[in-house]
Design goal:
- The structure is a single chain.
- A hairpin with a 4-residue loop joins strand 7 and strand 8.
- The chain is mostly beta strands.
- The strands form 5 sheets. A 6-stranded mixed beta sheet has the order 7-8-9-6-10-13. A 5-stranded mixed beta sheet has the order 15-14-16-18-17, with no helix packed on it.
- It folds into 2 domains: 101 residues, Thiol Ester Dehydrase, Chain A (Roll); 196 residues, 2,3-Dihydroxybiphenyl 1,2-Dioxygenase, domain 1, CATH 3.10.180.
- About 18% of the residues have low confidence.
- The chain contains 5 helices and 18 strands.
Length: 318
């Protein structure tokens, strides 16, 4: 079985010699193996071992085309209770490059999602806390992106404005009722801390996933938004506020359209908990890196860049 993943090497991914960290490359290889393995066993997997890895030449910032000598990784899989028996899958040769993982699986396979991957949760939308009214969003509109929706969240104390960037939705979220945002049913979201992220150290980001069954692939608690009818709940990952607010969205934000280009998203934070929910997931199109907080969204072949830093930690290329 062969798996490919396309990644870009950014300056923060390099060492003092200006070449890609080996550990980062191994992480990308591990993610590519996960995509292939999850499709094969039709369920969640974990990495037990990797072996036979050889690095033949350095990689510098720019598009990764794949090493000349592919590395091979041996991946032992464990299934959740009730699934198939654990098995070993040799996913190799593995290399960054080629088509994106979300396009590789057979769309006609049983249980396959709209992008062809089986039982893999996908990124639906991301949010960033912003100033009231989202004045920073004007730069997105000036560059040609259209605000597709704006609504209040009664009882949660927030309001948003949203833009489609390819098959991903970008949401700018602000607090318009501090009392509601700190109320007992909402406080666990830690929105006030996220809003003052530069002072509190909380992550100003959120990431919404959707999958074929709506079940969270991480330990979660049930959040009942006050603006939802009939007591519906959203599964929210159990994680400290230093990590993005990760949750399962009940619907799909961006209308399905095969002509929409696939978006790549990078979330950068000072540190990630390797055992945390985001670092433990394999999400198509999402990369986690370390450094000053920044959310980067990029479309393949994009020629325009909107950089909202330092007002907001957002950079969009489309």
């Amino acid at each position: 079985m062969q798996a490919s993943i396309l990644q870009s090497v950014f300056p923060q991914d390099t060492n003092s010699l200006g070449t890609l960290f080996a550990g980062t490359l191994v992480g990308w290889m591990d993610k590519a193996a996960a995509y292939a393995a999850m499709r094969r066993v039709r369920g969640g997997v974990v990495t037990a071992a990797m072996e036979e890895i050889a690095f033949r030449e350095p990689r510098r910032p720019g598009r990764l085309r794949g090493p000349h000598q592919p590395a091979r990784a041996h991946r032992r899989l464990a299934r959740a209770p009730g699934g198939r028996q654990p098995r070993a899958v040799r996913a190799g040769p593995l290399h960054p490059g080629g088509r994106r993982p979300r396009r590789q699986a057979d769309p006609g396979a049983a249980g396959a999602g709209p992008h062809g991957l089986t039982r893999v949760h996908r990124l639906d939308h991301v949010f960033v806390m912003c100033a009231p009214g989202a004045p920073e969003g004007r730069a997105l509109e000036d560059a040609g992106l259209e605000c597709v929706r704006s609504r209040a969240h009664p009882g949660q104390g927030t309001h948003n404005r949203c833009w489609f960037v390819g098959d991903l939705m970008l949401e700018l979220l602000w607090i318009d009722d501090p009392v509601a945002a700190a109320s007992p049913g909402v406080a666990r979201l830690r929105l006030p801390e996220r809003d003052r992220w530069s002072e509190t150290g909380a992550a100003p980001f959120g990431a919404a996933l959707h999958g074929p069954d709506g079940e969270p692939p991480f330990p979660a608690w049930d959040y009942a938004p006050p603006y939802f009818p009939d007591g519906r709940v959203i599964p929210v990952a159990v994680a400290p506020p230093s990590e993005p607010l990760l949750f399962i969205t009940p619907g799909v934000s961006v209308p399905t359209d095969p002509e929409r280009p696939a978006a790549r998203c990078e979330i950068r934070l000072p540190a990630w908990d390797p055992a945390g929910p985001m670092a433990s997931l394999a999400v198509a199109g999402l990369t986690l890196t370390t450094g000053d907080p920044l959310l980067s969204i990029a479309l393949e072949g994009g020629s325009r860049t909107v950089d909202l830093t330092p007002d907001l930690p957002i950079r969009v290329r489309f």
